[in-house]
Structure formats: C-alpha cells, structure tokens
Amino acid sequence: MCRSIKTLRPPYAEAVTEDDMRAAALQYVRKISGFRRPAAHNAEAFDKAVEAIAAATGELLDSLEVRGGVAR
C-alpha cells in the first residue's frame, strides 16, 4: 500500500487532526485511482471518495480501543 500513509493511533500518533485523516484519505484515493489530481470530469467522484474515507477513518479511530485507553 502507500508508504506515505502514517499510522494514526497511539502510540504512533499522540494527537490526530482532521487534516491528518484527510491527508491519509487523499493518499489512499490517489493510490487506488492512479490519479495525483483527477481530470475535471472525475474531480467530484475523487473528492467525494476522499471525504468518505476521511470520515470512515475518524469513525475507526474513535471506535478503536488501545491498551491503556481509547485511540483518539
């Protein structure tokens, strides 16, 4: 997978921001789609996927239980 996506849970990350989650989602969508920047006719689908994955990332991090506490 994309090596530039960082682990976003303790002990790897102490504070995770919305920007961190969106950056990871953007890297994922770029990798999967093969587009660094999509053409205008694909921009809406690309942006929608980034937002959906960022939201799913937030839900995942909020749900994880890490030894010693909650992940986020």
Keywords:
72 residues, mainly alpha, two-stranded antiparallel ribbon, 2 helices, 56% helix
Describe this structure in words.
The chain is mainly alpha-helical and 72 residues long. It has helices at 18-33, 40-63, and strands at 65-66, 69-70.
Q: Give the topology string: H per helix, E per strand.
A: HHEE
> Residue-averaged pLDDT, rounded?
87
> How much strand content do the residues show?
5-15%
Secondary structure tally: strands: 2
The shape is: elongated
* Percentage of residues in helical conformation: 55-70%
In angstroms, what separates the terminal alpha carbons? Answer: 23 Å
Strand order of the biggest β-sheet: 1-2
Alpha-carbon Rg, integer: 13 Å
What ranges have pLDDT less than 50 throughout 5 or more consecutive residues?
none
The total count of helices amounts to: 2
Please summarize the sheet with the most strands: 2 strands, antiparallel
Class based on secondary structure composition and strand pairing: mainly alpha
Element layout with pairings:
Blueprint: H1 18-33, H2 40-63, E1 65-66, E2 69-70
Antiparallel strand pairs: 1-2
Brief digest:
56% of the residues lie in helices and 6% in strands.
